[in-house]
Fold this protein.
Amino acid sequence: MSNKIAVITGASRGIGRAITLKYAQMGYDVAICCHHNKERLEETAKEVRSMQVRCLTYVGNIGNYNDACTFFHEIETKLGSIDILINNAGISCFGLLQDTTPEQWDAMITSNLNSVFYCSKLAIPEMLSKKSGKILSISSVWGNVGASMEVPYSTTKGAINAFTKALAKELGPSNIQVNAIACGMIDTEMNAVLSEDDITAITEEIPAGRMGTPEEVAELAFAITKKNDYLTGQIITLDGGWI
C-alpha cells in the first residue's frame, strides 16, 4: 500500500519546514516548494528522504499560475494523488500603508493569497474524484483582528480566513475539509526583523510568556488533518492566549 501524499508550500524554512518533517515522520510522501532558496529546500528534502519516504521538490513562484501548474503536474506524474494540501507560502512587510509601494502590495497578494487560490484550485479535482481530502492554510492572528504597520499582510490573512470558510462550505458535501491556523508570534526568521526589545515587549503581552515554535504549529497542523472529518470551516488560533 502506497503512502499518503502531503503537499506543503513554502517549505524551505520555519513553519513549512517543520510541517514537512512532521508529515514525513508520520510516513507521508511529501511534495515541497519554495520561491528562491533551492539549497535550503534540498536540505529539507535530504532530511525527509532519510526517513525512507519520497520527497519531490520544486523551486518557483506558486503565486504564478503557470508555476503552480508545473508544480502540481510534477506531483501527479512523480508521486500520485494528493491527500493533504498545506498552504504555507507567504511573506511579510512592515511599514505604513502610505509608504507601501504598489509593487510591495502586488508581491504580498501574489505570495500570500494567489498561491492559496492556485494550489487549492489545482488540488481540488483529485480530491473530488476520491471524495476525500484536507486543505489547511497557515494564517495569522492579524487576519482575525488586523495589525497596525502590517495592513497588506493583515489583508491577505483576513482574505485567507474568508476563503477557508467559504471553500469549506463548497467542499463539505464532497467530504473535503478546509481549515486554517491563525498563528500568533512564532519563532521564525520572518520575525527576525524585530529587535530583542520588540520581542521582549510582545512576549510580555502573551499569557504563555513566550513565542510559539514551528514544531508546535506542525503538531497542530497534523492533528487537524489526521482524522476528524467533521472539523471544517474553522480558523483555529494558536497564539498562547495573546489575542
User: Anything to note?
Assistant: The chain has one domain: 5-238. The two ends are 44 Å apart (CA to CA).
